[in-house]
Amino acid sequence: MIETTPHSSFREQLTSGRFIYGAELVTTRGIPEPDQKPKLVELGEGLAADSRIAWVSITDNPGGNPMIPADWIANLLKPRGKEVVIHLTCKDLNRNGLESAAWRYAAEGFNNLLALTGDYPVAGFRGPALPVFDLDSVSLISMLRSMNEGLEVTKPNGKTERLPKTNFFTGCAVAPFKRQERELMPQYFKLARKLQCGAQWVIPQLGYDMRKFHEIRLFLEWTNLAAPIVGNVYVLNKTVARMFNQNKIPGCVVSDALYAQVEKYAAGPDKGKVFFTELAAKQLAVFKGMGFAAGYLGGIHKAEAFAQIIDLAESYRPNDWKEFAREIQYPKPDEFYLFERDEATGLGDGSRVNAAYMKSLEQPAKPAEVTLAYRFTRLMHKVAFTPGKKLFPAVQKTYDRLEQGKHSTTLHALHGIEHLSKTLMFGCKDCGDCSLPDTGYFCPRASCSKTQRNGPCGGSADGRCELDDKECIWSRAYDRLKYYGESQHMIEGPAVFANPALSGTSGWANNFLGRDHHHNTAPAKPAPAGNGGPPPEKKTLTPAN
Q1: Nearest-CA neighbor of 450 among 85, 89, 86, 67?
Q2: CA neighbor of 22 nearest in space, from 48, 56, 46, 51
Q3: What's the CA angle centered on 205, arms 201 and 207, to 5 degrees?
Q4: How far apart are CA 392 and CA 396, in angstroms?
Q5: Residues 6+ apart with CB under 8 A from 524
Q6: 294, β-bridge pairs
Q7: Tens of pLDDT along the chain (545 residues)?
Q8: Would you give the DSSP letter of residue 174?
Q9: pTM for the predicted model, two decimal places
Q10: What distance separates the 2 farthest-apart alpha carbons in the chain?
Q11: Parallel, antiparallel, or unpaired: how do β-strands 152-154 and 160-162 relate?
Q12: How many whole angstroms separate alpha carbon 90 and alpha carbon 99?
């Protein structure tokens, strides 16, 4: 039986080289009765008493529903000495609210955060809440890193102040259970961007294909990135499996093949309990065998059920995981994998990237998204909007002279021409801080429900937005950029922070005069390796060898 070191931090335990276990707590809506101990607290106390569970992870308004804040239950568990990870999502708070929450967590001694974009809100008082998404997971990770380095702020007197350094150990998520190449590859590229912007550990979203879980490790090796990986296990029942199968919980996947198994076993006398318990325990065993740092259990409401699954996982023989890895592979039809299958293991072969994919990079097919308008826009950007190129210096001087001379009528007319043309071509929302070059010339405010500027969220399914009202903007952008040989570099560089102060102003003027995010960014720096050692000297999205 593996036990955690009594006073070691989550960071120390996750990077210790020992396989550890974590448990998920989902907060509730409403306050408990004064004379009753909440079931959530009872569960938390039961988990805190199990020495094999290294940490408890507490959700942040899961599914877009309003819940008790995560630090409420975290403070109840803190006296028991259990390490806590708090989920921090961008759906309900703007950048000031997120920074404020982070300061509160730091002040309370909660340094372990899982930075997430969050699901689109689906409920609220007298109607669904308006989503925020001022930041996304990448920009949130970047902000938390800046707080760790000592955030520089401008005081009311105009002087700069460096605030005390925080000590956040920030995790990120990745969604590998995507059927299409155009969905999966942007997910991997965004994972690389998260790590380069400051994420220090990785947890995948939910799925039941061990080959896809294994690919995350292979991708990190392929791109010369390093971070501990936490395997994600959700203990199914028929109701939840049906919701996952019907894409009702964003980013959580149960294929038709697995759901057929669920229906079969759920019809038995125990309603599938043995099958679901064994499936979860086998997943934990596979994660341990594949070299993951930890296994994370969710979907359980009793502490003894967590213990039962861990007991079963620990009872397997050392090499049983290899058989389980072959067994637990429930992909969707025509599932895309980045790496070729290793027939000896049934998992991916890290030395062989998908041959068809590599060939398609050399000879990409022309997608329907590569329209004449897109080709014209690319040409105009190259000629006029790229610093130092062709017409850029001349147009820059023109805008500078117009602003210096206060030619407001001319500037207003140019802004009108800009907005009209960009509205007709891209559905422009006049944000003044244009991300068209970042997103394959699809406006993120017009074409993305979460206005994502740093890569795709994890909620899409089969190339469709999690709201199922449009195609995912990042899948469309991938199609365009792949045709031009740019797909592997589509989500690189520092995090994009859109500047709301520029809303309603000219994006052209802001670009030429250096006011938008294209000019107001710091170079991306590699995050420290998850094991506490120095990061690799070079991060690349081409094979490391």
Answers
A1: 89
A2: 56
A3: 135
A4: 6
A5: 193, 196, 197, 492, 493, 494, 495
A6: 20, 230
A7: 344 445 689 999 999 999 999 999 998 888 777 766 678 888 888 888 898 999 999 999 887 788 889 999 899 888 888 899 999 999 999 999 999 999 999 999 999 999 999 999 988 889 999 999 999 999 999 999 999 999 999 988 889 999 999 999 999 999 999 999 999 999 999 999 999 999 999 999 999 999 999 999 999 999 999 999 999 999 999 999 999 999 999 999 999 999 999 999 999 999 999 999 999 999 999 999 999 999 999 999 899 999 999 999 999 999 999 999 999 999 999 999 999 999 999 999 999 999 999 999 999 999 999 999 999 999 999 999 998 888 999 999 999 999 999 899 999 999 999 999 999 999 999 999 999 999 999 999 999 999 999 999 999 999 999 999 999 999 999 999 999 999 999 999 999 999 999 999 999 999 999 999 998 654 444 434 333 333 333 344 444 43
A8: E
A9: 0.93
A10: 83
A11: antiparallel
A12: 11
Instruction: Check if the beta carbon of residue 142 is closer than 8 Å to that of residue 136.
Output: no
Buried b (16+ CB within 10 A) or exposed e, 219-247: bbebbbbbbbbbbbbbbbebebbbebbeb
Residue type, 509: A
- In this structure, are strands 348-353 and 339-341 parallel, antiparallel, or unpaired? antiparallel
Work out the number of other CB atoms within 10 angstroms of the CB of residue 411: 18
What is the token pair recorded at 31? 């306050």
Instruction: Give the N- to C-terminal CA distance of the chain in Å, as an integer.
Output: 39
Contact 140, 83 (CB under 8 A): no
Of 217, 255, 211, 208, residue with least CA distance to 346: 211
Nearest CA to 87 out of 109, 107, 65, 105 is that of: 105
Contact 190, 478 (CB under 8 A): no
57 phi and psi angles, rounded to 5 deg: -105, 130
Q: Which residues pair with 85 in a beta bridge?
A: 57
Helix (H, G, I), strand (E, B) or coil at 519: coil
224's CB contacts (< 8 A; 6+ apart) are: 536, 538, 539, 540, 544
Give the residue carrying structure tokens 């093949």. Answer: 257
Inter-residue contact 401 to 514 (CB < 8 Å)? no
How many CB atoms lie under 10 A from the CB of residue 293?
24
The domains located in the chain, with CATH, are 10-353 (3.20.20.220), 372-512 (no CATH)
Ranges of H-type helices in 338-429: 355-362, 372-380, 392-404, 408-426
Residue 52 near residue 288, CB atoms below 8 Å: no
- Six-digit token string for 326: 């072959």
Structure tokens at 299: 């979907």
DSSP label at residue 385: I
Task: Report d(CA 323, CA 342) in Å as an integer.
Answer: 14
Alpha-carbon span 513 to 529, nearest angstrom: 37
Positions of E strands within 49-82: 53-58
